């Protein structure tokens, strides 16, 4: 069973990458996570070599190579994505990573938590208590390894404990796995660029390969680090977009984050700002929310897909497509994520669809 | 043979740790059979941990049976995950849940970390309830459970909101095959008793630094991280954070997004880094930090489970009690419990085990248990005034009054 055949037909056109360069936005709410949707994007992209163009006029008309993926996740660890992709898409992400088709940037593990400590017993607590909040260390990116913070002043190779070595080597053997250890945007950018460098040499084989960059909840940077402004984050997205043809941004779009409270909090303003900006830049917006009518047994939530037809200069076919598509209001389908990880997508009232 | 030897050694190992079990605060003359350390099943190597009936991931009990029951079918809190319990108003029902969680940890020999509270908090943990009084009820319940195939009983656990250890027993049997005497996964605690803490450091009290300049959270993380790395790999840790961001405990700067959200993100990282050793339960006063605020939403996003307690105002409770026509067994609910997010279930996108999610849930706290059950409006049998009013209105329209109908 090919991974793409696990994607419901109704979902297929929504997660197929557009032919030309694009930014996509996926939004989710508290009760309706979009992780399953991101998994479908990954599965579709990674399996797109075997796919024929089909009825849509989207990619793959030239039989080009597949799509490589860089996944930057601030909310979930690699293990989670691996499990979910295996269950939901029948895909081995570890293999994809080994083959150089996928890179993972871990923004959860060490972003605000000094790394190390689990393997060594002899790190005194007092050593690290003197560190001020880890957040504001612009230059002081804590290096991997337990002796990170105190030994920031260029530890010579001899001072690095021996236990550090296996970790280092495992990091190098673990191709395509990167860890963010600071919310700094420049650090993020350089890490992503390293990840891109990891992908491209292995995939130059046949034809041009596209790359899809998935940013899972970058807005956490805005929330946790007030010094980062939403415009600098969006401009980073745009900068990355110049080299990476497809960028998928996942962001939370709960009401408290979008509709400002009466004295608007900087946190809410920043988030609102960011989401609206990205939404305007995006070619397609996929938003996931819970049912308005409450929880149902066989519906997990609503997926709303809005194509931004007038975006980025192609104003040509606006009128025509509005007729045959559902206009700018987008279309809505219901979905149900089953316990085994598979997903059912169906129209309202059409619960029988597979 | 080997297996048996392993089991007995395990049992011996646990015997030492379970000091708190046999010593009831009052002189419990009859040691209850459930609390005697028993041989754990092969899959259940550590005390207080059992595999989820859904996907086999290790879970641990929250100390409240009916709370375990609503956690999307996992019948426990999956290790490596956290729950935040929000409560509005001035009541402290969430604190009761927190105490049960901590007490369960102490009883199971887990390492409990309490943030921001002194030793008095630990001394007030509820003790294990004596099973004697529950026996009658338990027997009755078991009888009615016989109607359901016991095999399925363990899977759902949604109906097991009555706080008897019997259900955890059946669930353990399901998950472990046929062991005669499975260890207790979730104990029943009595708020009127006090847990006798075992000698040594069962509870690690993490003080909040009284700094006015920086975030108080990094030392907390370092403390837990140190504890995690310095204990053997089979020690389960529980992090308890009462009244997060409450100004009574936390310095003003703590509620800056940069400090609290960074902390929660780091805590999430820590939980994921130790996916088989750490759980956390936090409570948040909603009156100070309403859910409509962006900060609270981020806190919820960063937590794995979000529960909201809305206690009924006092007078409402009174009126409900008069109208409810509740039976003796059924206590009147004291508030509503809303489930906004569940560990594991929601990060997958929903599906699988969350069948009960849409129900209105109400909670009742009594001395011995915290029961979460479906909320249903009582029948309006006692609504005499409304009936009489209706009768009067009708009698104007030549309807026979009530008295005329009586023989």
From TrEMBL, chain A:
Region (Disordered): 119-175
One biological process term in Gene Ontology: tRNA wobble uridine modification
Record field: compositional bias (Polar residues): 123-133, 153-175
GO cellular component: elongator holoenzyme complex
Pathway in which this enzyme or protein is active: tRNA modification; 5-methoxycarbonylmethyl-2-thiouridine-tRNA biosynthesis
PANTHER family xrefs: ELONGATOR COMPLEX PROTEIN 6
Entry similarity comment: Belongs to the ELP6 family.
Name this protein carries in UniProt: Elongator complex protein 5
Source taxonomy: Eukaryota, Fungi, Dikarya, Ascomycota, Pezizomycotina
Automatic annotation (TrEMBL), chain B:
Predominant localisation class: cytoplasm
KW Transcription regulation (keyword) present: no
Keywords: Cytoplasm, Nucleus, tRNA processing
Pathway(s): tRNA modification; 5-methoxycarbonylmethyl-2-thiouridine-tRNA biosynthesis
Pfam family membership, one: PAXNEB
Superkingdom of the source species: Eukaryota
InterPro entries on file: Elongator_complex_protein_4, P-loop_NTPase
Gene Ontology biological process: tRNA wobble uridine modification
Biased amino acid composition, Polar residues: 25-35
Annotated localization: Cytoplasm; Nucleus
GO cellular component terms listed in the entry, alphabetical order: cytoplasm; elongator holoenzyme complex; transcription elongation factor complex
Disordered: region residues: 21-62, 383-407
Family per record: Belongs to the ELP4 family.
Protein name: Elongator complex protein 4
Species classification: Eukaryota, Fungi, Dikarya, Ascomycota, Pezizomycotina
């Amino acid at each position: 069973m090919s991974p793409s055949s696990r994607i419901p037909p109704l979902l297929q056109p929504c997660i197929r990458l557009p032919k030309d360069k694009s930014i996509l936005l996926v939004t989710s709410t508290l009760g309706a996570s979009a992780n399953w949707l991101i998994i479908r994007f990954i599965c579709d992209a990674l399996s797109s070599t075997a796919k024929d163009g089909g009825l849509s006029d989207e990619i793959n008309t030239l039989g080009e190579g597949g799509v490589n993926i860089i996944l930057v996740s601030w909310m979930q660890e690699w293990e989670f994505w691996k499990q979910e992709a295996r269950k939901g898409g029948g895909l081995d992400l570890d293999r994809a990573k080994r083959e150089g088709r996928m890179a993972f940037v871990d923004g959860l593990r060490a972003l605000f938590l000094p790394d190390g400590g689990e393997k060594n017993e002899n790190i005194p607590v007092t050593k690290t208590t003197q560190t001020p909040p880890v957040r504001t260390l612009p230059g002081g990116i804590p290096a991997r390894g337990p002796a990170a913070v105190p030994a920031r002043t260029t530890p010579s190779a001899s001072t690095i404990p021996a236990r550090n070595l296996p970790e280092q080597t495992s990091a190098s053997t673990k191709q395509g796995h990167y860890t963010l250890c600071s919310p700094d945007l420049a650090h993020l950018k350089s890490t992503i660029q390293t990840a891109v460098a990891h992908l491209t040499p292995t995939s130059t084989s046949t034809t041009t390969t596209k790359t899809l960059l998935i940013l899972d909840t970058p807005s956490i940077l805005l929330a946790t680090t007030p010094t980062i402004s939403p415009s600098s984050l969006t401009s980073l997205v745009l900068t990355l977009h110049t080299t990476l043809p497809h960028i998928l941004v996942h962001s939370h779009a709960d009401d408290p984050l979008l509709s400002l409270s009466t004295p608007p909090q900087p946190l809410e303003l920043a988030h609102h700002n960011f989401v609206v900006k990205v939404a305007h830049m995006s070619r397609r917006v996929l938003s996931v929310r819970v049912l308005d009518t409450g929880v149902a047994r066989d519906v997990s939530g609503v997926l709303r897909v809005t194509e931004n037809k007038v975006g980025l200069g192609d104003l040509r076919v606006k009128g025509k497509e509005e007729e045959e598509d559902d206009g700018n209001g987008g279309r809505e389908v219901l979905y149900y994520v089953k316990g085994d990880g598979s997903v059912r997508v169906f129209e309202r009232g059409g619960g029988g669809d597979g | 043979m080997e297996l048996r030897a392993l089991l007995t050694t395990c049992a011996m190992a646990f015997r030492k740790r379970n000091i708190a079990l046999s010593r009831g605060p009052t002189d419990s003359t009859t040691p209850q059979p459930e609390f005697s350390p028993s041989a754990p099943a092969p899959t259940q190597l550590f005390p207080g941990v059992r595999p989820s009936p859904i996907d086999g991931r290790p879970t641990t009990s929250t100390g409240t049976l009916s709370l375990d029951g609503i956690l999307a079918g996992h019948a426990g809190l999956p290790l490596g995950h956290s729950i935040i319990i929000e409560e509005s108003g001035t009541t402290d029902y969430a604190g009761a849940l927190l105490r049960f969680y901590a007490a369960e940890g102490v009883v199971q020999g887990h390492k409990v970390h309490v943030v921001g509270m002194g030793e008095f908090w630990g001394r007030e943990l509820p003790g294990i309830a004596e099973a004697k009084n529950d026996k009658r009820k338990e027997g009755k319940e078991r009888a009615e459970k016989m109607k359901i195939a016991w095999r399925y009983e363990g899977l759902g656990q949604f109906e097991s909101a009555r706080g008897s250890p019997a259900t955890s027993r059946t669930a353990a049997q399901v998950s472990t095959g046929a062991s005669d005497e499975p260890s207790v996964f979730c104990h029943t605690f009595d708020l009127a008793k006090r847990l006798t803490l075992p000698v040594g450091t069962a509870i690690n009290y993490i003080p909040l630094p009284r700094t006015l300049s920086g975030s108080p959270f990094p030392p907390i993380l370092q403390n837990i991280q140190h504890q995690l790395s310095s204990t053997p790999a089979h020690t389960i840790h529980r992090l308890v954070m009462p009244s997060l961001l409450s100004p009574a405990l936390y310095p003003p700067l703590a509620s800056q997004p940069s400090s609290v959200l960074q902390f929660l993100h780091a805590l999430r990282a820590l939980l994921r880094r130790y996916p088989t050793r750490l759980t956390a339960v936090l409570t948040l006063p909603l009156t100070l930090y309403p859910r409509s605020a962006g900060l609270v939403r981020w806190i919820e996003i960063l937590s794995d489970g979000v529960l909201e307690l809305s206690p009924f105002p006092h007078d409402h409770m009174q009126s409900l009690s008069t109208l409810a026509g509740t039976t003796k067994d059924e206590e009147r609910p004291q508030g509503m419990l809303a489930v906004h997010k569940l560990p594991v279930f929601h990060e997958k996108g929903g599906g699988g085990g969350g069948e009960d999610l849409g129900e209105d849930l109400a909670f009742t706290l009594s001395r011995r248990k915290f029961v979460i059950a479906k909320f249903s409006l009582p029948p309006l049998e006692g609504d005499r005034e409304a009936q009489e009013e209706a009768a009067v209105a009708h009698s104007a329209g030549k309807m026979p009054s009530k008295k005329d109908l009586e023989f």
